[in-house]
Specification:
The structure is a single chain. By secondary structure, the protein is mostly helical. It is built from 18 helices and two strands. It has a two-stranded antiparallel sheet with strand order 1-2. A hairpin with a 2-residue loop joins strand 1 (111-113) and strand 2 (116-118). It is globular, with a radius of gyration of 21 Å.
């Protein structure tokens, strides 16, 4: 009875009571762990997947690009839906959907349906890119708006904790995948294990997750038209300029996530397991540290210096330029790991405020739509980096990867210049003020 009573007290006070905003953050962080770890699996397991299914580098590139384009296309719908319907159920169904499709990756191959032969490439493209992408697309516009509804003065630190789950998932994915391959035997079983675990978490969400605080702007049924959020976003110059930075971040992250393990394996003639651990662990460990530190720093300084978030992001992009150049030109494993770690610091310093900066200039009732628009453009343009890097690799080998990293450095530099316009000219005018 004592154990039951303690469990009841914990559930009422932590899960559903005054500490709910932090338990909700923990739940969403768990979902985001699977969101990113599941996505990293494909890059980490590219070599055994290619070996078994006979896929070329260009085909792998198109699979990754199709995932990004699916996320982008669905975001046009997911954003407005997130502003008008229950974010709890959108997030829950999203988690259940993408986890099931990750599970189904364990069964891909050349299929014959009603006498029609479907090559392995098209089967993988459907389950990995289209079906998984549709499920994931509804999570991204909803989670930052839901977190922001519960966290006002602690917004940056809350979003940084959630973002930290991304880095924890990615930096541990290489180690977990190598271990899982040893225990489970094949890449197929690894996908099935990750998908099954995420599905179980989704069932818990159906019971424990709540929508925004009662009576908040986020819970009210608004009378604006369906496209009011689009109008709000596109008439806000600071939001458009912030999107330039997010496009650059996604463009680079997409290519790094999918191709860095293979790049290191080819360049230094090491196993894919070792290359995956080196490419993911140190980069994401430093990114995790940066995002935890910068979340606290931002919440501390932004009250008196409203442009602090924006300035931090611009500085991160500028510092990332030489890091990306040196990843492609590094001659030793130690040199490349050092630069991937430095790039991780820059990435974390930017991403801690990706959504918080957007919310500085977008009102609460339009935030899911705004995040959806961010996703549309960032993942459509960012998705090109996957197939571009694959084409460069297929035609020029390791040298192609070096050209690719130089191109990514240029994307960072251009985005920083555009965001400087917001810092000096538009932010002060576009900034909104929130109480709480």
């Amino acid at each position: 009875m004592c154990t039951v009573r303690l469990a009841e007290v914990w559930y009422n006070s932590v899960v559903m009571g005054k500490w709910y905003k932090w338990s909700m953050l923990a739940m969403l962080s768990g979902a985001f762990f699977f969101h990113q770890a599941d996505r990293a699996l494909f890059g980490l397991l590219t070599i055994p997947i290619q070996k078994e299914l006979g896929l070329t580098d260009v085909e792998i590139g198109w699979i990754n690009t199709a995932l990004s384009w699916t996320l982008a296309g669905m975001a046009f719908l997911a954003g407005p839906v997130g502003d008008r319907f229950s974010r709890k159920w959108i997030i829950t169904l999203s988690l259940l959907s993408w986890s099931f499709m990750t599970f189904m990756m364990g069964f891909v191959g050349t299929w014959t349906i009603c006498g029609l032969v479907l090559p392995a490439f098209w089967v993988v493209l459907f389950f990995r890119s289209i079906a998984t992408g549709v499920g994931e697309s509804f999570y991204t516009p909803c989670y930052p708006a839901l977190i922001a509804a519960f966290h006002t003065k602690t917004r940056s630190i809350a979003l940084s904790i959630h973002q930290g789950a991304l880095y924890f998932g990615l930096m541990s994915s290489g180690i977990i995948t190598a271990w899982a391959l040893g225990v489970l035997g094949t890449w197929r079983h690894v996908f099935m294990a990750f998908g099954g675990a995420g599905f179980l978490l989704g069932l818990y969400f159906a019971v424990a997750l709540k929508d925004a605080p009662s009576g908040s702007v986020s819970t009210e049924r608004r009378k604006e038209g369906l496209f009011a959020g689009f109008a709000c976003f596109f008439r806000t110059p600071s939001a458009l300029l912030a999107m330039a930075g997010f496009i650059a971040i996604v463009f680079v992250n997409n290519a790094y996530l999918f191709w860095a393990p293979k790049y290191m394996a080819m360049k230094f003639d090491i196993s894919i397991g070792a290359a995956g651990s080196m490419a993911m662990l140190w980069h994401h460990l430093f990114a995790f540290g940066a995002i935890m530190l910068c979340g606290w720093l931002t919440d501390h300084f932004v009250q008196k210096r409203p442009r602090f978030r924006l300035g931090l992001q611009i500085g991160a992009l500028l510092c990332g330029v030489p890091c990306l150049l040196m990843i492609g030109r590094g001659e030793t494993v130690v040199a490349v790991i050092a630069m991937t770690s430095a790039y991780g610091l820059c990435r974390g310093a930017f991403e801690v405020n990706t959504h918080a900066s957007l919310f500085d200039v977008i009102p609460p009732q339009h935030r899911s739509t705004a995040v959806g628009i961010f996703t549309v453009f960032a993942f459509f343009v960012g998705g090109l980096s996957g197939v571009l890097m694959g084409a460069l690799s297929q035609h020029a080998g390791v040298k192609g990867f070096e050209y690719g990293f130089a191109l990514m450095a240029a994307a960072y530099g251009l985005a920083a210049l555009l965001m400087l316009i917001s810092f000096f000219r538009t932010f002060a005018k576009d900034r909104i003020h929130e109480e709480g």
